[in-house]
Write a structure and sequence with these properties.
Blueprint: E1 22-24, H1 31-49, E2 55-56, E3 86-90, H2 98-105, E4 136-148, E5 173-176, H3 185-205, E6 206-210, H4 212-218, E7 228-232, H5 233-239, E8 245-248, E9 254-263, H6 272-278, H7 281-289, E10 309-310, H8 314-318, H9 321-332
Parallel strand pairs: 1-2, 1-3, 5-6, 5-7, 9-10
Antiparallel strand pairs: 3-9, 4-7, 4-8, 4-9
Length: 342
């Protein structure tokens, strides 16, 4: 029984009475299960201690994170008290924005309570190590391929990210799309690994863009819109039909966006019970069961044998370069974007 705080009540962060203990932004497919897990924890904690957490846990897909002037507008905060005590969000999100990094990350306002190490499915473990000791990676959102076999026309199915640059895929690749603009994570990975030549290849090979739910609903039906679709594992796994729509986990590692836990240093001890729950096997299971591999040691994430994930890395994201690339790619590839929702 989380005390939900609605958007209308948060239009002015300064007039909101009291303190928000906990704010959550997780991928749409797991929102309901995450809400259920939090509600059960809240009930048990309230019964045991009489203490209630004031939380903002959206559980409806389409409630997006950029509500200007609300508690979700993290980048607008100028005082640490304007940020909830504990937050879950995406690594490539408001907590890695230049404003938040400068005001709060560099000044030590956040505390690292877990360290990601010893996970065999991280292709480059060093890229996941936070130089400021401020970010806690709970899980990752991997991006894989769906290959529509009837559209291959004799071409060998791609096995790696580099394979997608081959001229044989001209006008054959469906790019990942987001609700309000083209997805930029894929292009960032291409530029980081293959430079401008890689982006030029994608200019040639891209044919359209769709978000994950749209691909899952439409790929394999009617006239093929592409031969290769790029989308999150959570949607690809449900849509795959071996021999018709083949799921390909890139041999060189699936690009991912980590999901991070942010803990205000000065409030960590006060919120210890909530922190213990968020780091528990229960929450790790919610992530893993929804195809977001959890970093908690011992979690069975159901990954294909030998599967790895890779990321641009904290050094890149926190340098501010990613924000510049995002702005560039949104304009450069806007011709493929479709305004949409799940």
């Amino acid at each position: 029984m989380t005390q939900a705080i609605g958007i209308p009540d948060l239009l002015n962060r300064h007039s909101q009475p009291g303190r928000i203990d906990f704010k959550v932004e997780v991928p749409c497919p797991m929102k309901n299960r995450f809400q259920a897990a939090i509600d059960q924890f809240e009930r048990e904690h309230l019964e045991a201690t009489g203490e209630r957490y004031r939380s903002f846990v959206p559980n409806v897909c389409g409630e997006h994170v950029d509500g200007a002037g609300t508690i979700r507008d993290i980048t607008a905060a100028t005082d640490i008290d304007q940020i909830p005590d504990i937050c879950i969000d995406f690594a490539s999100g408001p907590f890695s924005s230049p404003q938040t990094v400068e005001r709060f990350v560099r000044t030590g306002a956040f505390e690292q309570v877990i360290a990601v190490s010893g996970l065999p499915w991280l292709a480059d473990p060093g890229s996941f190590i936070d130089p400021y000791g401020a970010y806690n990676i709970l899980a990752v959102n991997p991006e894989v391929m769906l290959v529509e076999t009837r559209a291959l026309n004799g071409r060998p199915a791609p096995r790696t990210l580099e394979d997608l640059l081959d001229p044989i895929w001209e006008s054959s690749i469906c790019l990942p799309d987001n609700h309000k603009h083209i997805g930029t994570r894929f292009f960032s990975a291409i530029r980081q690994r293959f430079g401008e030549d890689g982006l030029a290849a994608m200019d040639r090979n891209a044919v359209t863009a769709m978000n994950g739910p749209t691909i899952a609903r439409s790929a394999g039906h009617g006239t093929p819109k592409a031969a290769i679709y790029l989308l999150p594992w959570v949607f690809a796994r449900g849509a795959a039909r071996p021999g018709k729509l083949d799921l390909v986990w890139p041999d060189d590692g699936a690009n991912c966006n980590p999901i991070v836990l942010m803990v205000k240093r000065e409030r960590a001890a006060k919120n210890n019970a909530l922190l213990e729950f968020l780091l528990s096997p229960t929450v790790a299971r919610v992530f893993a069961d929804n195809q977001f591999p959890a970093t908690r040691p011992g979690t069975d994430n159901g990954l294909p044998e030998g599967a790895t994930v890779r990321w641009l890395g904290w050094d890149h994201v926190l340098s501010g370069v990613q924000a510049e690339w995002d702005a560039e790619f949104i304009v450069r590839y806007n011709r493929f974007h479709h305004d949409n929702s799940c």
